[in-house]
Structures are given as structure tokens and as C-alpha cells.
Design brief:
The protein is of the alpha+beta class. The chain folds into 2 domains: 124 residues, Jelly Rolls; 290 residues, no CATH class. Helix content is 14%, strand content 28%. It is built from 5 helices and 23 strands. The strands form 6 sheets. It has a 5-stranded mixed β-sheet. Strand 14 and strand 15 form a beta hairpin. The termini are far apart.
């Protein structure tokens, strides 16, 4: 028997439904740890709890699906009054917009936060990264660098890391680098780069452009060598030598950094099966040279030429020329008088090195795969530029860019007497004219490319870089 003042109150059904929904949501929430990546596969939790922090970077990476297919939506709140953010909004609710599978938000979370996911397609998987520093998932603006190919090989380079600080020499100790400059030790904590190469026909560009999606694709070919190389002033790079590729095939290449960041794609084409030149790279006196030159295959077991097996008949005259040029250059009062507010003798030496290497190592091209309007010239080794190359090897030469010569002319003191041919007086006989800068009216190309190469593997003239 109940006393009159002990009555049972029945809650309204609408309130019971709200309480039940709140309890269900609380039970299905996952807590996202900081500086960690959570991989989600179906069934997907609808809500995630974010911890309290002055600032967090929340990033999303879709791991399945295509860039044109259906994608989920992600809503985020850093307000303690909004328990279930979604399309209907609420206090401080933000939608994380996805672009090619990536999306991120950075802001304060002083009261914690909630991440909601809706409209998840079947079988969709994704990653959520939370960091109190920089964004974990990212599509970077950088890309791999294409060196060159043969019929079955390719030289590729990662984006630069560990940039070197090379201060300009100052008076009175104005010493220029030697012909063979000393190479510092490689960084002890290099970036964790992974190369992915696949035939373009496999359609990697139609996938979500994220590291977790691209990593599911098996890379084509064999990484015959992976090492570090100080290719240019931008810093150290990872150099990859790929072998086992198919002749006359279009390839797409990505570089993944630290498992979660991905570069923009680049494209390249292997040469035809009759291509007879060999790759050369890793020359300390010509560090940026990384392309095919008119040499027979290197002695086994080497797959390419480098400083250890390049014939001395080729390297010694080049090193001697660099030494003599440097000696002559230092007779100018580089450390006492400023001859230019823009460049120094060190800039002159570097520009001359680039030019000398470009003209000494003729770059082979394949007429079957070269881009239209490239600066091609049928040649015979030995050629007029470097008679040290062995004879009897006919090849098609990709002429040096005229700008490689004019850059040296601009950077160097006039007393050296360095001069370049001009477009109106047959410069195109020995240089690629009108590909980077505008040539004279009517010149082939007319500067329409505005560059010596592009991300699609087209190379119009040899810059020596």
C-alpha cells in the first residue's frame, strides 16, 4: 500500500525518446586521442569525442572510393552546448570539406569537442588524425622530381628535405668551392619517404588522393637502389632507381611522407625498346645531372653510371675545366669589390658549373616518346661538345636550353669573356631556343612552354637540372 504523497510520475513519451537517443549516442561515441590516427571501418561510429586543448588539428583521409564517388560528411563542434553536431547546425558547428579525400580543421577546443559523421557510403573506410601540432593528413603542394628514363629504368627524386645553409663567402676569406666540392654527411634523421609508381592506365589519379588509399596499390617495378643525394641547393633528396619497367609506357608516381602525407602526382614515359643510352647520376662535380647520356651499358653489376664507374676520359677534362675557371674567377676582386648587387662570384661559379655539365653530358632523347616541338638533334658520338664520349653510337640529342648559357653570362664578371649565341644568329643550331623565354619572332616554340619541363614528363630542352 502506497501513501498518498508517494506517487509514480509517468514521463512524456517524447522526453523518453530524447533520453534514449542521448544514452545511445553516448554509448556509441569514441574518444579520439591526441597525436594519434584512428582507422575506421564499418560499422562506423556516428560520434567522436575530442579532448580539451588550447588548439587541435583534426584531419580526415578517405581510404576507399573514387574522387567522383559518394563521400561521407563530417561535422565538428568545439562548443560544450552542442552534443550532436550535424547538417542542421548548432552553436559553433563546422563542416570539414573534403577535397580529393582530404579535409581538416584547426582551432581551439577549450571545452573539448564532438566530431560527427553522416552519409557514410557502404564499405567506406577512413582515418581520423588529431594533433596538437601540425595537421597529420595532408596533400602537399610538392611532388617528386623526374630525372629520366631508359626503356626499363627510371630515376626519380623525393621533395627536398634538410636544406643546407650555404652562406656566401665574405672578404677577406673569399674561397669558392673546389671543382669536386666536399659532400657533407647525409642527415641522420631523414624523412620517411615511400615511392609509388604505377602505369597511368591503372587510374591512380581517380582514387582518393590520400596516403591510405594510394598505399593499397602495389608499386610497379623494382627499387634497385634507394639512397640520399644532395642534388641542388634545395637540400637532400631521396633518389630512387627503378628497374623492371615496360618500354613506351606511361607511368604515374607519388611520394608518401611519414605514412600520412602525399605529394601531387607526376607522370613520365619510358623510352622505346631500341633506346641505347644509359643513365648517369651522383656526380659530385655535376650533382644535378641525372639523365640518359650516349654511353653503352655500364660494367656489371652496376645498372647506371656514377662517380665510381664513369670513364675518367670524360670526368677528368670536365674537372680540369672547372678548376681552371675557378682559378681565373678568383683573380677578380670578389671579396673586396661588389660587382653586382644581385649576384656574387659564388653564383657565377655555380651557373658555370650547371652550364658546363649540361653541355658536357649530352642528354639523349627518344624520338618515339619525346614531346612535340622538343629541341631534338640527330647526333653521333663523339660530338662537337665532348669528344671524350666513345664513338660509333648514334643518338638523338635533346639540346641544352639557351637560358642555361645566358644565366652564366648574367652571373659572371665581363672580364671572363663568357658569351652566348643569340637567337637571330643561329643559336638554335646548338641550343634549344624559345622554350623557356620568348625567342625572336617566328622562333620554334616562341617561349610558349615557359619552362623546360612539366609534371607530365615532357622535357623540351636540357636545363642541366
Amino acid at each position: 500500500m502506497f501513501l498518498p504523497d508517494h506517487r509514480i510520475s509517468i514521463l512524456p513519451s517524447a522526453l523518453l525518446l530524447l533520453l534514449n537517443a542521448a544514452l545511445t549516442a553516448a554509448q556509441t561515441r569514441k574518444t579520439l586521442p591526441v597525436n594519434f590516427v584512428v582507422s575506421e571501418t564499418p560499422p562506423i561510429a556516428p560520434f567522436y569525442t575530442l579532448p580539451t586543448a588550447d588548439q587541435l588539428a583534426v584531419s580526415i583521409a578517405l581510404c576507399t572510393g573514387s574522387v567522383d564517388g559518394p563521400i561521407p560528411r563530417f561535422f565538428l563542434t568545439n562548443s560544450s552546448t552542442t552534443a550532436s553536431p550535424g547538417p542542421d547546425g548548432g552553436d559553433d558547428v563546422f563542416e570539414i570539406t573534403l577535397d580529393r579525400g582530404h579535409g581538416s580543421y584547426t582551432g581551439p577546443f577549450q571545452s573539448g569537442g564532438v566530431l560527427a559523421v553522416t552519409d557514410v557510403p557502404p564499405q567506406m573506410t577512413f582515418e581520423i588524425g588529431v594533433s596538437d601540432g601540425s595537421t597529420i593528413h595532408e596533400s602537399t603542394s610538392s611532388s617528386a622530381i623526374f630525372g629520366d628514363t631508359t626503356a626499363s629504368q627510371a630515376l626519380l627524386f623525393s621533395p627536398a628535405f634538410s636544406r643546407l645553409d650555404n652562406p656566401q663567402p665574405q672578404y677577406p676569406n673569399y674561397t669558392l668551392p673546389r671543382a669536386i666540392p666536399s659532400i657533407p654527411a647525409a642527415p641522420s634523421d631523414p624523412k620517411n619517404y615511400t615511392l609509388i609508381v604505377s602505369p597511368t592506365s591503372n587510374g591512380l589519379t581517380s582514387m582518393q588522393q590520400t596516403a591510405c588509399a594510394l598505399s593499397t596499390q602495389k608499386s610497379t617495378g623494382i627499387v634497385a637502389n634507394e639512397s640520399f643525394w644532395l642534388r641542388d641547393a634545395s637540400g637532400w633528396r631521396t633518389e630512387w632507381l627503378m628497374t623492371g619497367l615496360t618500354p613506351k609506357t606511361n607511368y604515374t608516381a607519388y611520394v608518401i611522407l611519414d605514412a600520412y602525407k602525399v605529394t601531387l602526382p607526376i607522370f613520365f614515359t619510358t623510352k622505346s625498346s631500341t633506346f641505347s643510352c644509359s643513365l648517369v647520376s651522383k656526380l659530385p662535380y655535376c650533382p644535378s645531372i641525372s639523365y640518359a647520356v650516349p654511353l653503352p651499358p655500364p660494367p656489371a653489376p652496376a645498372a647506371t653510371y656514377d662517380n665510381t664507374n664513369l670513364p675518367k676520359a670524360i670526368s677528368d677534362p670536365l674537372i680540369s675545366a672547372l678548376t681552371n675557371f675557378t682559378t681565373t674567377l678568383t683573380t677578380f676582386a670578389c671579396g673586396r669589390d661588389l660587382y653586382s648587387p644581385l649576384v656574387t662570384c659564388a653564383d657565377c661559379q655555380q651557373a658555370y658549373r650547371t652550364w658546363l655539365c649540361a653541355v658536357s653530358f649530352s642528354r639523349c632523347a627518344d624520338p618515339d616518346t619525346a614531346p612535340p616541338l622538343a629541341a631534338l638533334l640527330p647526333s653521333q658520338s663523339p660530338n662537337a661538345r665532348n669528344a671524350a664520349f666513345p664513338s660509333g653510337n648514334a643518338f638523338t640529342q635533346l639540346l641544352p636550353c639557351l637560358e642555361t648559357c645566358t644565366a652564366t653570362d648574367r652571373a659572371c664578371p665581363s672580364f671572363l669573356g663568357f658569351r652566348c649565341p643569340v637567337p637571330r644568329f643561329n643559336a638554335n643550331v646548338s641550343y634549344g631556343v624559345g622554350y623557356v623565354d620568348s625567342g625572336q619572332e617566328g622562333e620554334k616554340g616562341g617561349g610558349s612552354m615557359g619552362m623546360w619541363d612539366d609534371a607530365f614528363g615532357n622535357v623540351w630542352c636540357n636545363s642541366g637540372l
